[in-house]
Amino acid sequence: MNRLERRVSRTLIASLLCAAALGALLVGWFASGWDDVRGRQKELEAEPVLEARRTGDQLARDLRLELSRVIGRENARDYFYYGNLYHDPRAVNTWSVTPSPLASGPEDALIRGHFQVYPNGNVTTPTINDEVPELSQRDNLEDNVAFRSTIRDSLARRLADVGTVVAEVGPKPKSKQRQSQVVKIDRSSYTQNATANAVFKQQQVSPPQQDQLKQTKLTPPQQATVPTQAKVEPQQARPPAVDAPIPITITSFEWRTETLGKEPALIATRHVDTPDGRLVQGFVIERAKLASWLATRAGETPVALRVEPGAVPDAESSEIGPGWSVTASVQPAALERAASAASAIARSFVVKFAVVGLISALAFVLVVMLVARAEQLARERSQFAAAAAHELRTPLAGLQLYGDMMADGLGDPGKLSDYARRMSEEASRLGRVVSNVLGFSQLERGNLSIDARAGDLGKVLCELAERMQPTLDRAGAVIDLDVPPELRATFDRDAVSRIVGNLIDNAEKYSRDAEDRTISLRAAKAKHDGLEVVEVIVSDHGPGVPPAARPKLFKPFARGVDADGPAGLGLGLALSQSLARAMGGELEYRGGDVGAAFVLRLRA
What we know:
By secondary structure, the protein is α+β, with helices and mostly antiparallel strands. The chain has helices spanning 3-75, 141-154, 156-160, 162-167, 187-194, 196-203, 207-216, 287-298, 332-408, 416-445, 457-474, 493-510, 572-582, and strands at 85-86, 98-99, 113-117, 123-124, 180-185, 246-251, 254-260, 263-274, 277-286, 303-307, 319-321, 324-328, 453-456, 478-482, 488-491, 518-528, 531-539, 586-589, 597-603.
């Protein structure tokens, strides 16, 4: 495995390790982050359903509470209020009746109507008085008549059956029993409530006639007649004595679900046990009224009532009564908002992951580039060390050779001056190598000092060519100098000498195999980008610079030949271009059909 393969291997291994570590981190982060995103999305998507469920449960609790208040108010209502006329034993101690508070209709918005069922199946409602029609509620008479007919047709017989009433009050725990209370009223009040229509008619005649009617028809009370609509079947037990209070047993209201007509209704019933038999009192809450109550409180949430006869209400569920429950649906807008929010979370995570992934990829590329650059620098240092050793060893070997010959008196004594000149040339060559290294070091540190002044450029070029000609002669090369007199430009003398010297030295080295060993050094005024400049052109008849090597021609340690080419440090052109730019000029390569040509452009 050669050095290049080892270098590529090290860079590849470092790249693979970085890629594996980065990939593992990104995959782990994406997996954990996506799980979190999916969890949050599920929470958002489930929130409308949970919110609808909470809304339904809350509405059910509110409605249960409202129905409890309704039934509480009705439990507190005296039994005789369920007639069209009533006598209040706590108000007056005379023979008089007055319209019931329920005669004008239900006091509660949820109640459709009140009713009372007698043991014989007869049904009365507080809003209708068949014997005294003027006492009936006139505004909704047809609706009230229809309501009474519906109760009579759908419920009367079943509610009138005592045994059935007890058994069908609705599903409830076995441990729960109907609560009841016993109230006692005087016989006069009881009789007036039982014969309210007759008492009302009596109130319409003159006082002497009232006294006569009291003596003939209404005294004693057990001889009073009961109106047709409220006739009570007497039980076998006789009423108590005239002056003894009459006990009335009243149970509490309980809910039940019944079908009135074709629609289910929520009904509350209670029993009123009197000396004349059992009455069943109740009131009806229609489905439409419950739905309207819910709609006013549900806001935008769609809610509906569901009826499942036979179900037992649970205080912790959405049920409000026997078989009645509230169902809240999810708002389509809420689902859309949840879906939009879930998509936004996913998009945000993907964008964030993409940004972090891109930054990580850039960091990975930078790390790989740093590793590759470190490898390149290591290679360049190695090459520089080898090239510097070779470049320094050759002139040092010449110096040592001629110095030993002169010290030991060897060689031709007549050529001592030639030996000394060769030593001077090798020293100059050694000086150029050291100068390039020192110049590049200054360039790297940023303290390259240039003092560009206007002067005679032609004179400097002629002196440089004269100084380098002996060395080129011994190498078999010759300088073709074409420089006009009094060619003035703005330049630094030492910098121009180093640049042109490097160019001529390169031309000699890279054209050693050429048939024509002429190195051309020309200088002339020219126009560039509309400005007057002076161009110094150094060209040869060698192989030129390959196109693949030209982009890196002026980079440090870059050379236009392979390892088998002439030795060199690869610093001369990089340093020369930096010196040219420091003087306000430019150094560039101009390829031709044969050989290589470098142009140094300076300000005129």
